[in-house]
Amino acid sequence: MAKKPGQRSSKLSVYLYIPNIIGYMRVLLNCFAFSQCLSNKILFSILYFLSFVCDAVDGWCARKFNQVSTFGAVLDMVTDRISTACLLVVLSQLYKPSLIFLSLLALDIASHWLQMYSTFLTGKTSHKDVKDSSSWLFRAYYGNRMFMAYCCVSCEVLYLILFYLVENQTQKLVDMKTASDACVLYDIEKKHKN
Prior knowledge:
Blueprint: H1 7-15, H2 18-35, H3 41-64, H4 70-94, H5 99-121, H6 136-143, H7 145-165, H8 167-193
């Protein structure tokens, strides 16, 4: 299929939409945040929450600047799912029983996947279009931005609070790494003496 003149520049422009650039920044923020999660809980919490705030900002920018795109919607949802999934995996390692957090992870991914899939089956363009849904909860959640924002923020803040409160467990993981390093250093010194 031959490319039309200007097709490359218009494709590039979608990648450079303001909300998509914010989405890329969210990915970078999350990568850096999770690299620091066990060594600097405050920095992790700030970066993770900043990424979460950027989630609201990118949606606002998309509507404000008329830069709504399928690519941006997918980038946004994938970033949301991965960041929440990573935090739930970390929590599953810090709390016992871990099955609680892994179940929440499975519910989060499955519910979003099913909602997206059912949206495409019905020919809708957005998973948030639930006007004809028989579920009052879906209509309340997706039909009222304030309610949806309240639910999302409450959930993420709860996860962050749980992460922040488990300081001793996080320290134990860091101590285990330090103890492992001490054993390895002992082995190296022992080998050099022989």
